[in-house]
Design brief:
Elements (H helix, E strand, L loop, with lengths): L1 H15 L5 H19 L6 H39 L1 H16 L2 H5 L5 H65 L12 H10 L3 H10 L22 E4 L14 E5 L4 E3 L4 E8 L5 E8 L2 E8 L1 E2 L6 E2 L4 E4 L7 H9 L8 E9 L2 E3 L9
Antiparallel strand pairs: 1-2, 2-10, 3-9, 4-5, 4-8, 5-6, 6-10, 7-9, 10-11
Length: about 375
């Protein structure tokens, strides 16, 4: 893992170039800690929390590494293009340096016009030499940086392979730990018959959520105190806003978040699970109740965690996204093309307040 820190530190220097590199360094620290957290998770009483932290550490670190490699590749192409454009200039510079290197010093100063010409040539040489030296220093610096960038991308393959292997192990262990969890408080016990009837009678996601709203339960968590400042349940980018039509002209009362394959989805605040499982054609859906008469409908999961009635602390995993994880060599190929990796998976988030859909921006900070 020490080697990993060196790689990330190099990436931070290349990627930020005279800009603060705290974010990249923090990601390096998280990656260093991820493996040790994973190894020690078995002995922890809060194993789910430890494994959640491990997965998030790996995801953050790998994202930073991929972005750093992309920037390194862009910088490499910039240097190669610059050196290619200056090839004639470099050739002339090398020719002058070789000539000066072969000629004895007295001959360099001797001028056919006599002592005055010799004095003038000495003055000119004294003025030209620092400029030549500066060009040599600049050229050497560029060549050294180019060599470091190429070496960095070669060494990163092993780092990526270890990171991808580690995060996959952590995800697998996290899924098993959640399945074995029995320590969560329950707000109510699920009625499978009632849920089945509601599913059978619901033709849309909104209808199902409305039916859940009609099923009142006793008081639970209340996230209204931080309304408007809540982070999204998954790391990603909002690509479709509330009621914005898609390519087919269909507008939905929620937002669409683009994220990476197998990304971990968590509840950003304490909330009660009202439903968890497959629903219509939305894939796996988790419906959370963060406050009275408010539901968060989270759809598009490959795996859904939790059982109806459980009260989840903030940061608790509620599912994993689908998709195929890009292999290490493919990540390097993406980086060479200037891509930081595609967010190929999408998560749908809808907020319902008193049975009506509202703009998620009223609750979440993403704009």
């Amino acid at each position: 893992m020490k080697f990993l820190a060196v790689i990330i530190a190099l990436l931070a220097g290349v990627a930020t170039a005279q800009t603060p590199s705290e974010a990249a360094q923090a990601a390096a620290v998280r990656l260093q800690e991820a493996q040790s957290i994973l190894e020690n998770a078995d002995g922890r009483s809060d194993r789910v929390a430890a494994l959640t932290q491990t997965v998030q550490a790996y995801e953050d670190g790998l994202a930073a590494l991929r972005d750093g490699l992309r920037r390194a590749a862009i910088r490499q192409r910039t240097l190669e293009t610059d050196l290619a454009a200056r090839s004639d200039e470099v050739a002339r510079l090398l020719g002058v340096l070789q000539t000066m290197g072969r000629a004895p010093a007295p001959i360099l100063l001797l001028h056919p016009s006599g002592p005055t010409g010799t004095a003038r040539s000495g003055m000119m040489l004294a003025e030209v030499t620092p400029a030549l030296q500066q060009k040599v220093i600049e050229l050497r610096s560029q060549l050294d940086e180019l060599s470091d960038l190429r070496s960095l991308q070669t060494d990163a393959l092993g780092v990526l392979e270890k990171g991808l292997e580690g995060v996959q192990t952590a995800r697998t262990e996290l899924t098993a730990a959640i399945a074995d969890r029995t320590d969560l408080p329950r707000r109510f016990s699920d009625d499978p018959v009632q849920t089945a009837l509601l599913l059978a009678s619901s033709e849309t996601l909104s209808a199902f959520a409305t039916g859940l709203s009609d099923t009142q339960t006793n008081a639970g968590p209340d996230a209204t105190t931080i309304k408007g400042a809540i982070p999204l349940p998954v790391s990603g980018q909002v690509i479709r806003q509330y009621n914005e039509a898609d390519a087919a002209g269909v507008a939905r009362p929620g937002i669409l978040i683009a994220t990476r394959p197998r990304a971990l989805v968590t509840t950003p605040v304490s909330a009660t699970v009202r439903y968890s499982g497959p629903l219509l054609d939305y894939g796996n859906v988790v419906i959370l109740e963060p406050a009275a008469e408010t539901l968060w409908v989270i759809a598009g999961l490959a795996e859904a965690f939790g059982e109806a009635g459980e009260i989840l602390p903030d940061g608790t995993p509620i599912g994993l996204m689908g998709g195929e994880v890009t292999q290490a060599q493919a990540i390097l190929n993406e980086s060479a093309q200037g891509s930081a990796g595609q967010r190929t998976e999408t998560l749908y988030l809808e907020v319902r307040d008193r049975q009506s859909a509202v703009n998620p921006a009223e609750w979440f900070a993403f704009q």
